[in-house]
Amino acid sequence: MTTPPTTPPAAAAHPDLLQRLHATVGDAGLVLDAEAQAPYLQDWLGKWHGRTPVVVRPSSTEQTAAVMAICHETHTPVVTQGGNTGMSGGATPDGSGAQVVLSMVRMNAIRHVDPMNNSLTVEAGVLLANVHAAAAEIDRFFPLSLGSEGSCTVGGNLATNAGGIAVLRYGNTRDLVLGIEAVLPDGRIWNGLRALRKDNTGYDLRHLFIGSEGTLGVITAAVLKLYPRPVARATAWIGAASLEALVALLARLRSHCGERLVAFEMMSQASLDLVLAHVTATRAPLAGQHAFHALVELADTRADGLAELLEEGLGAALEDGLVQDVAVCTNASQATAFWKLREGISQAQVRAGKAIKHDIALPISAIAGFVAQADAALQALQPDVRIVNFGHLGDGNLHYNVLQPADTPYAEMTEKTALLNRTVHDLVHAIGGSISAEHGIGQLRRDELPLYKPALEFELMMRIKQALDPNQIMNPGKLL
Prior knowledge:
By secondary structure, this protein is of the alpha+beta class. It has helices at residues 17-25, 34-37, 61-74, 128-137, 154-160, 167-170, 206-209, 243-257, 269-278, 306-319, 332-343, 345-352, 367-381, 410-430, 449-452, 455-468, and strands at residues 30-31, 55-56, 78-81, 100-103, 110-114, 119-123, 140-141, 177-183, 189-192, 218-225, 227-228, 232-240, 261-268, 292-300, 325-328, 354-356, 359-361, 386-392, 397-404.
C-alpha cells in the first residue's frame, strides 16, 4: 500500500487521521490534491466555498462505517456529499479546513431489482437518471423528476427530501422510499432495507434520516418504490388573468382527471418573459400575454383518451371564462418545448442578474392571497422590484424570487437579502406556510429556522441530534 501524500496545510487536528483513512479506503478513496478537490468545495450555485484536509470516497457500506468510526473517535467533523447539486449550501464544508468531505459517488451499485414487489434497492451514489433507466428496463417507473437528474444522487435526494415536478401525484422523496440503510456517526450500521408497505413495529426510523441533511448519519442505500410505467402523456399550456383562476382550474382538473394529473406548474408572465429573453431556442406558447401561465400534464398506463380528457376539461374552463387561452400539445416535440420554458427559469435568472430566492410552501387555498400581499410589500420596499414567481402550484410550492441587477454590490445585496427574506418569510409564517419546501435548510436558512420553527419542535430536533450525534461531528453549521 502506498503512503498518502503529505498532509495539506488545512489538515484536521488529529495527527494520524489521513493515514488511518488511507488504510481504510486506499488510494482510490482519497482526494488530497487541491485541484482535484475543487469541485467538492463549492456548491452548485457558487455561493458557498470551503476547505478540507481530504475528500474521502468509500466504495462500500463497510468502508463508510469504518470512516465514520475513525471520525467519531477523533472528533473530526464530516460533511456528506452526493452529486453536489443542492440549492442551500448543505453539502459544502466551511472555511476552517477541519471538515472531512465524505463523497458517496463510488457507492453507485443497483443492488436488487424486484418487479413483483415494485421496488428497487440502490446505493446512495446512484444517479437519479440511472434509477429511471433501471426502472424502465423492467417496464416500471420511478416518479422523482428533477432538472438535475443527470448529476444528483439518491443519497442527496433522500437527505434533502427532494420534491420536483411530480409531487402532486406521487409525493416528495419521503413518500417514495420503503426502507434505508444508514451508518450512524459512531460507525454502527443500521440495516433498514425492508421492502415492506406495512411495518407497524414502532418508530419509523427511516423518516429521521430522510430530510435530515446529513446531520444524523450517512444514508448508504435505499429501497425505492416503483410504479407502473405510463405509456401516454397529454400536455397543455394555459394562460389566465389571475392566480385565483389557476387555483380554481387546479381543483377542477383534479376532479375531472383524477390521479392522471401529474403536474400543474405555474409561471408569471414576468418569469416567462425572462426565459424568452435569456434561453435560446424558445418561443411564446400562446399568442397573447397573460398575467399567469400554467403547464399541465396528465399521464396514464392506458393510451386511449388521455388527450381528449384534458381537452374536455380545459374546454369547459375556456367556455366558463376561467382561463383565457389554451394550447394542447399535439406531439412530443411540442411538449418538450413547453417543458423547456418551465425548466429554463433557473438558467434565465443566472443570466439576468442575482436572484434572492424563496423556496416556500403554502396551503394552496392561500397562494393567491399571499402573492398579492407579498407583491405589495416588496414594491413598497423597492419600487422597481423584479419578482420572478413560479413553482409547483399543484403542491403549494412557490419559488418566489426577487431579481437584482448583476452589478449589485455585495454589501447592498446582503442588506437587501436580509430585509426581503424577513418580509417574505414573515408573511409565509403568518398563514401557516414553510420557509423551505424542497431545497432544504442547509446554510441558507439555518439562522432563520429558529424564528419560524415552534420552540418545542426545535428543541425536540436538537434532542434527537444530541442522541444520535453526541460528538456533534455530522455536517456542523447546517440545518441546526
